[in-house]
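Running log. JK asked me to keep both predictions on one page so they can be read side by side. First protein, sequence followed by its tokens:
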Amino acid sequence: MHKMLGLALAGSTHMPKVAATQPSLADRIVRDIQSGAFSPGAWLKQIDLQERYSAKRLDVRRALDHLAGKRVLTHIPNRGYHVYHLNPDLQKQVRETRVILEAGAVPDLLSRTTPAKVQALRVLAERFANMIDDGTLMEQYEVNLAFHAALYDMCANRELVALIHEMRGRSPSAPSAEWVTRSRIEQSAREHFDIVAAVEARDVTGLQQIIREHILQDFS
């Protein structure tokens, strides 16, 4: 198990390696958010970002719009953009609600599991693991979204799936706060493979436990 992850994690250190993909302006902003250069709730001025990153105004605006769409930033019309911030108590309630919904979806999704769906999920888990070295934070984010979408799209209950996606959308974006160190990204990757194994084994209790830990340990 985890052969692909083992390759991705070879030579692991506490800090992420430089990605093979050239970081975009959005990635550079995310890195600065994680480093503490921009704190949660801080307003970002376009003119300051233009100077900081030696970027054109249009490129800065596109990067800000992109990050707002990923919940890294919040856009307030006529005011601007600030770093996404969720009240800790509300965030805890959102995560607890997610556990109820996502763990509750397990019997439904496992009843519709097929070898092809398991393989598609495994491919996404491997892609995420490989991107620890070869991808940017935003690329990892997109694959992470695809992995969880593929998992819950197995469900027959589409209303439940809609609720799951809605609640996931109310959590802070992983690149903005959670994946600060390589070790945290690696743990998320390992949990993806554990999810795939539990789905393949049709292990209801095991999958529910992994999902619960995945959410509450801030790696979803």
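And the second, directly underneath as requested:
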Amino acid sequence: MELDEVTDELYGLRPQEFTAARDDRAQRARADGQRELAKQIRALRRPTIAAWASNLLVREQGEQVAPLLRLGEELRGAHRNLDGDELRLLSRRQHQLVNALSKEAERLASQDGVPLGPQAQQEVAQTLHAVLTDPDAAQEWAAGRLSKPLAATAGFDAAAREVAEAPASARRSGKPGRKGAKEPQKAKAGGGAKQRTGADGGVKAPGGTGDTGRTRETTEARESRAAREAARRTAREAADEAHRRRREADAASEEAAAARAAREEAEERAERLRGEMREAEEARKQSRKREREADRAEREARRRAEAAEAAEERARREAAGTGREAGAARGGR
């Protein structure tokens, strides 16, 4: 019996079948002398409904695994490169594929007799989003052995949206003649409008396309660059925070699994000790019983020995008396 084989078998079962099958496999391993394997099997956690449905999707629709993994790689690449156009395109594909796979998981689960409630449906979709944002989560999902739904990388979607929207906003803000821009004011007849003298001594109209227009375009370009840089910072910070939280969650999960395994091992040890104590108590009772029986047998043997000695003594006395009587009879004749 191998752990990989048992794990694959157990996570292919429905949640209500998992615990009994796991305990049975652990008992078999222990009976075969594989105590470490038995402990590892017992440490396997029963999957939630959403995790089971996600596993079912991988197992029943294996051809959908590779496309989702590829899309995740493309999304993460566009996110790293801060490619807004590519992110917008991939985001549309992401929503279409996640929606389709979520519905397929719901259909498969219902077909297997375990309909998904709203919470489970949401967790299945959340798991699929996690597959797209985190390569480690993608590998976990593709193995088809989840015990709980996966969480999407914190801030990934929000940062991606911000990066995707920033260039478009910048382009919109850089267009001349946008809504709200004022038309150049025509100079009034008779020289009523003030005029400025340029560096070359010429005269420039107040609303002309000279320095003021160039200044406005320069300001808008700076704002556009600042928006893109802010989006980059937000994306980097979100990614760093997500990785940190992922590491913390993994560490906490490992600690919890180790604690559960230690508790179960302690319970098994305590049960073994209780069994040994019961056996020792039974042995003590049997020993005392045999001791009492031996005492009774000894007393009975002693009584019989004493009775035999008394009978022997009586026989000797009777024999001696008979001999004297016989001698007296001969002397009288």
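Observation for JK regarding the second prediction: The beta strands are 196-197, 203-204.
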